[in-house]
Amino acid sequence: MIGQAWADEASCMLQFISCVLSHPIIVIVQIQGALIASLLAAGWAFSGVMRLRELRRVRRRITSEAASSACQPVPLPNPNRRAAPAALTLAGLSAKRGQILSAPRCGPLPAEHGSALACSSSSGGRTSSSDQQGAKAAVTEAIPPPSVFSAELGSDGRDVWPAMTVILPVKGARPHSHEAWRSHLALNYEGPLEFLFVVDDPSDMACVPLQRLMATAKGVDARLLTAPHATHSSQKICNILTALEAASPASRYVLCLDDDVVLHPGALPPLVAALLADPSLLMATGYPIDVPAEGAGMLTYCIMAYHLPLLIGVSVGERIRFVWGGCMLFPAEVLREDTIGIVRAWSNGGYSDDLIVAAKCGEAGKHIYCPSSAIFRQTLVANPTWTTYWNYLRRQLYVMDTWAGTHNRRLNHGMLLLHCWLSWALVGPALAVAARAGAWAAQVPLLATQEVYAGPGTAWDWLGRLMGTNQGGMCGHVGASLPGTQSVSHHAAFLHRSSSAWASDRLAMEPGAAQCGSAAAVASALAFVAACLLAGAMLRWMTGVVMELLLALHPQAPHPPTLSAFSWPQVAAGFFATNALVPICALYTVVQPAITWSGTRYWKRGGRIVRVQRQPP
């Protein structure tokens, strides 16, 4: 009888779990989770479609250019201009459906960066007047006004790109830093271009490799600056402002880049051309695609998972309200004259450079340009520690509790609350489904005991009621179906003696009082699982399209990313693990005013940085 009593108690426990998981609240939570997962699937599918269109345009452009022109070495037209790895002209850009394509890379990048390659035509490498007019007409048809482009033409008819300063705050050197720095110095841009790498310590471990790289990059105007230690802002903002003061006065555009992202050679011309063509655009931006390093562990995928939903926000169109701090292109007067208060907000306790810019753009009613081609590879470290991951997650949420005004505060706090709700709205039904699956798995060993103790033919009927396919009053049925002396009261007494009062209460219910195997609960759980599988499939497809786009934009990349670099079971596990921690981390971050970022400790009060302390190495 001990085996029978154990089987009765175990089946009662599983029935109780099924009753709880069939509660109407759980059903609603699972339906809500299915809807959110479906929205993620739709968003990733739309993002993939936008990148696929860009991929097809890039391939068509490459095919047409291969058929109409040949690539050959030509001398630089102006010795005072930077020796670009490939000559690009406004006439070489095309626009379609409002999107300006990036210029092609016409040949391999010489190791010494000392010569230039240009797409030459029958006119000997110079763009004909008719070609210029046709290209300008295509661009201005997509983005007016035409007077902007005509103002950029030199007296000899050759396109003159505006001077630009690229600012790269640097802190330390990572395994893939050298590849990223080389991609920056190898950018295709026909106009004057200077690079300002900024560190906060002359002894930074990035200084020596950067100096060696700049020494070998002949014809590239690159300098290494040292910024003072920040006192009332983040060190990154302090580095940007230091470089802005040292930038060439002739620069008409300023590009702020993260030093750990790999850019494709034609990344700059589409962004500059769009800002030249449309004065309503305040700035241009891009977005990273995180790629795990070889042999990446679980925590790497947890870090990667944080950015996955944000890819949807930068794919809704070319005019967006989001800004990624890793790529921000401004007209120089926006920062020098501080027309909308960005520099003032940065200097006055600013912590997050990109969220402040996004808020100021929203206040000014300005749009931000983000083409589908402006997506850049960012390689994640293989095996971060738990401390590194927790600090990363805290820093992502810390920015949402900093602000530079009332509008910025409402925006950031609203995003933080929405982020927390969406995170647990996905994790909650996932836990419910996992518990239900575990209960179903535990029922398999009990099938035989039902046949022995409840009579032949009762096992599958019992399992059907438990899983929701048979709508009987199951909790009461089990006790009533047992033969002879094994009545409901007997089992209730036994369970009471074994300190299982909760099971006794459930068994004492009248038949039909509890429909533990709710078909609605099972159906909503299956719908959530199906929606998650669909979202995973769309994410994988979108990632594959992005990998192909990156390869098409940079065929000579030394380490081209591939879809095989991703472990999709770890992607799924990292996604749910990170979202499970987001509300907990957000609550801790709100009540904890301090955060550590790259060896510097920051304290916030009233949404601004009020204290900065450098930690010993």
Could you explain the architecture of this structure?
The chain is of the alpha/beta class. The protein has 22 helices and 18 strands. The protein has helices spanning 2-21, 24-68, 129-142, 146-151, 177-185, 207-216, 235-246, 268-277, 298-307, 310-313, 332-336, 342-347, 353-364, 386-398, 406-443, 446-453, 459-467, 474-481, 488-497, 501-507, 519-553, 568-591; strands spanning 70-73, 86-87, 95-96, 99-100, 117-120, 164-169, 193-199, 221-226, 253-257, 281-285, 287-292, 319-320, 327-331, 367-369, 375-380, 594-597, 600-605, 608-614. The protein has an eight-stranded mixed beta sheet with strand order 8-7-6-9-13-10-14-12, sandwiched between helices. A three-stranded mixed beta sheet has the order 1-5-2. Strands 16-17-18 form a three-stranded antiparallel beta sheet, covered by helices on one side. Helix 1 (2-21) runs antiparallel to helix 15, helix 2 packs across helix 15 and helix 5 (177-185) runs parallel beside helix 6. The longest helix is centred in the N-terminal third of the chain and has 45 residues, at 24-68. The chain starts with a helix and ends with a strand.
